[in-house]
């Protein structure tokens, strides 16, 4: 520490701060307790704002604390589903189901069902995956290919 003594020595850059003062032992727990109150309130509000429903061919997802978003996604607009879980969600047996739809890139990541029970997420993913329309097979026209043979269809 002798190498840093010049910082607080008279005429040093930190001399105006004065000598270091001891911080009371209770200062850090007091700051943590004061900060914990708003953090707990925000977490409870975030939990209360989560919601989802599937009815009449529409999937509804709601979330957000300061900005609440409600997304209504018709089943025929679904292009894919992704069931993911963070390490914290895996420990609590929860998962997030992302509803993949065609959209413009932007700030919002798209509709997602947050913190579902893992079994509910898997059941819902299977139910919605069954409703996904298969992609139409691409067929080349014989005029474009220059042959009269029928174009092969892809599986």
Structural class: alpha+beta
Low-confidence stretches: none
Number of E-type strands? 6
Rounded mean pLDDT is 82
Helix content: 25-40%
Strand order of the largest sheet: 1-2-3
Q: How can the largest sheet be summarized? A: 3 strands, antiparallel
Instruction: State the shape.
Output: elongated
Could you tell me the radius of gyration in angstroms?
A: 29 Å
Series of H and E elements = HHEEEEHEEHH
Q: Between the first and last Cα atoms, what is the distance in angstroms?
A: 72 Å
Give me the number of helical elements.
5
Structure description:
This protein is α+β, with helices and mostly antiparallel strands. The chain has a domain at 76-133. It has 5 helices and 6 strands. It has helices at residues 5-8, 27-49, 87-91, 118-131, 142-145, and strands spanning 51-55, 58-63, 69-74, 78-84, 94-101, 112-117. The strands form 2 sheets. It has a 3-stranded antiparallel beta sheet with strand order 1-2-3. Strands 4-5-6 form a 3-stranded antiparallel beta sheet. Strand 1 (51-55) and strand 2 (58-63) form a beta hairpin. The model has no long low-confidence stretch (mean pLDDT 82).
What is this structure's SSE topology?
Blueprint: H1 5-8, H2 27-49, E1 51-55, E2 58-63, E3 69-74, E4 78-84, H3 87-91, E5 94-101, E6 112-117, H4 118-131, H5 142-145
Antiparallel strand pairs: 1-2, 2-3, 4-5, 5-6
């Amino acid at each position: 520490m002798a190498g840093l003594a010049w910082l607080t020595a008279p005429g040093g850059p930190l001399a105006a701060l004065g000598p270091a003062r001891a911080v009371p032992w209770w200062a850090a727990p007091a700051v943590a307790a004061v900060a914990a109150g708003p953090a707990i309130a925000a977490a409870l509000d975030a939990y209360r704002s989560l919601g989802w429903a599937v009815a009449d061919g529409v999937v509804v997802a709601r979330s957000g604390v300061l900005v609440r978003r409600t997304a209504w996604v018709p089943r025929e607009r679904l292009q894919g589903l992704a069931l993911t879980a963070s390490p914290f969600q895996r420990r609590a047996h929860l998962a997030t189901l992302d509803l993949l739809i065609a959209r413009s890139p932007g700030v919002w990541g798209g509709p997602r069902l947050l913190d579902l029970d893992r079994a509910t997420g898997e059941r819902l993913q299977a139910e919605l995956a069954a409703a996904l329309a298969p992609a139409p097979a691409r067929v080349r026209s014989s005029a474009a290919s220059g042959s009269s043979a029928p174009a092969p269809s892809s599986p």
